[in-house]
Structure formats: C-alpha cells, structure tokens
C-alpha cells in the first residue's frame, strides 16, 4: 500500500494583500506630508523683486577750462647756414697743414700753407717792371714840359709837342699795367696762405704736407661747416601758410622745437627764420627755415629731426581728454553724463589737440564725460563711475 501524500506547508514569507495595504498607505501619507512641507517652505519664502538692467561701469573726467598751444608738426633736415669747401687758389706744394680734423676754427684762422717762392719771385718781377716804367714816365713828363716851353717860343713845331704828349700817355698806361700785374702777383702770394672764410667746424682732411695741389681744384682741402647757429629746413602745408604769415606780420617770433625721431626728447629750441616764396605744386607745401643757437652741438648737419612750430595759443577754452572723443565718419562726439547717471551723446568740434588733451566746442566747463567703457554704451544707458585709484607717491629712503 502506498503511503498517503502529505499536504504542503504554509508559506508565511509573503503577506497577503490585506496585511500589506496599511503599511503602503502609511508610507504614501508620509511622503505626501514631507513633499507638502517642502513645498510650503519654498512658497512661504519672500520672492525677490525683479531687477532692472545693471549700470555700466565707466571712467569719467570733468571738462576743464585752460590754455592750449597749437603746433604744426613736420619732418626737417638740419642745414648749416654756411658750408664752404676750402680749395687752393694757386697751384703748388703744400708745406704746412695748420688744422686738425674736427677742429672748431674762427674766420681768418690759418689752415694751410702753399710753397710761396714762385709767387714771391713773380711779385719781385712785377715790382721791378713797375719801377722801370715809372722812371720812363717821369722822364717823358720832363721832356713834355721842355717841349711846351719851346713851342711857346716857336722853337719846335706843334707835331713834335703832340708826339711827346702821346709818349707820356703811353708810358702812363704802361705804369697802370704794371700796377695791375703787381697787384695780381701780390694776390697770388696771399693765396699761398689758406685761411678760414667762416667760423665753423673742420671736416676730414683731404691733403697732407708734401702734396701738390692744383689751382681751384674740385676735391678741396677740407670742408668747413658753420654749426652755431644752425638751421633746420622743413615744410608747411599750404593750408597753414596764412596762419603762419599772420603771426609773422604781427611781429611774433614763432617758437620752433627740434625733437628726435621718436618725438620723445627735445634736442633744441629756436625760432622760425623765414618761409620760402613759392609753393611746391607737386606736394602742396612750402619750405620754411628755423634757426637754433646750437651752442652745445645738439643738432648735427644733415640730421633728420621732427619739428614742432608753435603757431598760436588758444586762451581759456574747454579742454577734454582725447580719450573721451569718439568718431563716427566725419562727426566727433562725446558721451555726457547727466545728473541721473545716464549718458547722452553730444557732437563736438575739435579746435586743437596737444598730447592727450583737446580743445573743443559743444561742451561746458564742469560737464562729466565718459573716458572709457564704451563697448555697451548708448544714449540713455545707466552708468556707474568707477572710483579712481589714488597714486601713492614714492617715498625716498633717507638712508
């Protein structure tokens, strides 16, 4: 007989739906309460009021009243007042050289000597010829006086007297010729001493003692350049000629400043000397010459310099920083800061610019102008002026 099949044991690991539902409902209720509490906390916080557009940070400066100089800028060339190439006026051997290269010489200083012996001999010949012909003239004049007395006594014919008069005139002409030859010989002797015709600086030497030089040679013995005073030649645009001449007619000496190539260092200061008498039609400019004392050789011949010519000074005008001026095609304008810290554009006319400052019309003294921060700026924008950082002066260590 088979054994009876036993019934399966009960599985208590699983709860029936009736036992699980109360716990599930409790969990949902707890989650709802937590969510409601969180939502209530968020909704109960005060909401910030919506903010408007933030002010644009900018830099600003105030329009000031003052004087400003009006300059004309040009490129110039240092040009000596006098430049002389020293040549020998007579041919001969150089016996002495009395100057050094780079030496400053004065007018009539002895520079070199040419062998004078041939010219001294010619001078003696001219003196002897003159003495002989003067004696002949003296004798002819004595004969003329005797012939005149004889003619009055009807002792000689008139033809003899006329012939003697012609002889005297001929001898007088010969004496004048001799005097001219003597003067020419003396000049040649003087030319053997080569002297400086001007004050100036001697350049490099082209001859040495013992060299034979030709009369009126092309190379020259040396070159003397006057360096004090010295001039600078530059050009002025034809549009500025009237303004320059107006100042010159008024008797004003227009100051001129010579600067180096970088325009950062002043080399010398002088005055406008003169302006050329015609405009170059190709360039539309006229040449001008300024003179400088150059006592310390600040300027060197043929040096290129930048020239600033002071034409006039504008008195008590409105001055603004150059950084405040904006450009739109041919229009110049600034941003004016109002009392409510909003900006408005204002057209201005530039009268003159010197360095970082411009003289303008269209604004008034005390107006605040924007100087930087233009990127997002437009008319009506709200701005906030950045505080400027004070510059702390350097303290010198007494030790």
Outline:
With 399 residues, this protein is of the alpha+beta class.
How would you portray this structure in words?
- The chain is an alpha+beta fold and 399 residues long.
- It folds into three domains: 67-80 and 226-385, Elongation Factor Tu (Ef-tu), domain 3 (Beta Barrel); 88-112 and 194-222, RNA polymerase II/Efflux pump adaptor protein, barrel-sandwich hybrid domain (OB fold (Dihydrolipoamide Acetyltransferase, E2P), Beta Barrel), CATH 2.40.50.100; 116-191, Helix Hairpins.
- Helix content is 27%, strand content 34%.
- The protein is built from four helices and 21 strands.
- The chain has helices spanning 17-44, 117-152, 158-191, 241-249; strands at residues 56-62, 64-80, 83-86, 92-97, 104-105, 110-114, 193-195, 200-202, 212-213, 222-225, 230-237, 255-259, 266-275, 285-292, 304-321, 326-328, 331-337, 343-354, 357-361, 368-372, 383-385.
- A six-stranded antiparallel β-barrel has the order 2-11-14-13-12-15. A four-stranded antiparallel β-sheet has the order 3-10-8-5, with no helix packed on it. It has a four-stranded antiparallel β-sheet with strand order 7-6-4-9.
- Strand 17 and strand 18 form a beta hairpin.
- Helix 2 (117-152) packs antiparallel against helix 3 (158-191).
- The longest helix has 36 residues, at 117-152.
- The chain starts with 16 loop residues before the first helix and ends in a 14-residue tail after the last strand.
- The model is unreliable at 1-15 and 389-399 (pLDDT under 50).
């Amino acid at each position: 007989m088979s054994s009876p099949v036993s019934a399966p044991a009960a599985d208590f690991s699983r709860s029936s739906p009736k036992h699980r539902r109360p716990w599930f409902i409790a969990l949902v209720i707890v989650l709802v309460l937590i969510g409601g509490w969180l939502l209530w906390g968020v909704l109960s916080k005060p909401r910030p009021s919506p903010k408007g557009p933030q002010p644009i940070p900018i830099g600003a400066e105030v329009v000031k009243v003052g004087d400003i100089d009006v300059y004309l800028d040009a490129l110039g060339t240092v040009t000596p007042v006098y430049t002389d190439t020293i040549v020998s006026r007579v041919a001969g051997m150089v016996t002495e050289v009395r100057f050094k290269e780079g030496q400053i010489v004065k007018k009539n200083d002895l520079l070199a000597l040419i062998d004078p012996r041939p010219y001294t001999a010619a001078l003696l010949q001219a003196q002897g010829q003159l003495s002989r012909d003067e004696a002949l003239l003296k004798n002819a004049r004595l004969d003329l006086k005797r012939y005149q007395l004889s003619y009055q006594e009807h002792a000689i014919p008139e033809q003899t007297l006329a012939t003697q008069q012609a002889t005297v005139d001929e001898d007088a002409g010969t004496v004048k010729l001799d005097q001219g030859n003597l003067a020419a010989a003396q000049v040649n002797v003087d030319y053997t001493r080569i002297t400086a015709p001007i004050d100036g600086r001697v350049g490099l030497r082209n001859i040495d003692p013992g060299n034979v030089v030709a009369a009126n040679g092309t190379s020259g013995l040396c070159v003397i350049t006057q360096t004090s005073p010295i001039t600078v030649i530059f050009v002025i645009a034809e549009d500025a000629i009237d303004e320059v001449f107006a100042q010159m007619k008024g008797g004003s000496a227009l100051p001129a400043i010579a600067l180096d190539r970088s325009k950062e260092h002043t080399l010398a200061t002088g005055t406008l000397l003169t302006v050329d008498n015609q405009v170059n039609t190709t360039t539309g400019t006229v040449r001008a010459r300024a003179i400088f004392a150059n006592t310390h050789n600040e300027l060197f011949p043929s040096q290129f310099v930048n020239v600033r010519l002071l034409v006039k000074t504008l008195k008590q005008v409105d001055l603004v920083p150059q950084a405040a001026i904006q450009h739109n095609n041919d229009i110049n304008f600034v941003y004016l800061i109002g009392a409510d810290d909003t900006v408005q554009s204002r057209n201005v006319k530039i009268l003159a610019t010197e360095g970082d400052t411009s003289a303008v019309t269209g604004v008034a003294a005390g107006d605040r102008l924007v100087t930087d921060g233009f990127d997002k700026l437009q008319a009506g924008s709200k701005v906030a002026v950045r505080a400027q950082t004070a510059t702390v002066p350097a303290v010198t260590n007494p030790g």
